[in-house]
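To illustrate the input format used throughout this study, we show a single complete record. The first block contains the structure-token representation of the backbone; no residue identities are included at this stage. The design step must infer an amino acid for every position from geometry alone.
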């Protein structure tokens, strides 16, 4: 891959446009009768978000995710660094790098990447819930609760809903 990536550095194609499919799945999640149905639909969202722009980007994404899953967080971040350098407009590269940073409790780095993810894809439920968890981890409770509400507006079945605090006088 090394030489191929170097040669392709300037040629990452645009990320796939899954906007219509994403909106359809989000609507189905919001209408889901139960958490099990919503989880299946959420897997469909992740399949779209992790559909990289080309084979090089997909290989980097898959390798970084495998490293993260094996708890090699620094190595995963290095691979995600390559991915975002190669495909700076691909939201999932930033989101996955944020997740690796979050798991290391490097909340500042995670928050920066989550903000970039949301600039590229404002309706990325995973990034919104990750932003909520990151802000809560930083002790920024009010902002974390706001991000959590935004995520739950898109997917009311998120497991993170258990962290939602009811404001006085307002039912959940």
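Output of the design step:
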């Amino acid at each position: 891959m090394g030489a191929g990536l170097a040669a392709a550095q300037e040629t990452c194609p645009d990320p796939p446009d899954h906007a219509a499919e994403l909106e359809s799945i989000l609507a189905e999640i919001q209408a889901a009768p139960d958490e099990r149905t919503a989880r299946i639909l959420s897997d469909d969202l992740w399949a779209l978000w992790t559909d990289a722009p080309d084979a090089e980007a997909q290989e980097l994404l898959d390798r970084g995710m495998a490293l993260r899953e094996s708890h090699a967080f620094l190595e995963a971040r290095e691979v995600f660094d390559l991915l975002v350098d190669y495909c700076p407009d691909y939201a999932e590269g930033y989101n996955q790098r944020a997740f690796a940073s979050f798991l290391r409790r490097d909340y500042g780095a995670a928050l920066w990447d989550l903000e970039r993810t949301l600039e590229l894809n404002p309706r990325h439920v995973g990034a919104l819930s990750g932003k909520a968890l990151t802000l809560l981890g930083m002790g920024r409770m009010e902002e974390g609760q706001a991000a959590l509400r935004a995520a739950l507006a898109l997917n009311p079945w998120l497991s993170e809903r258990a962290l939602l605090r009811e404001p006085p006088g307002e039912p959940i």
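Structural context for interpreting the output: Confidence is low (pLDDT under 50) at residues 1-8. The radius of gyration is 17 Å.
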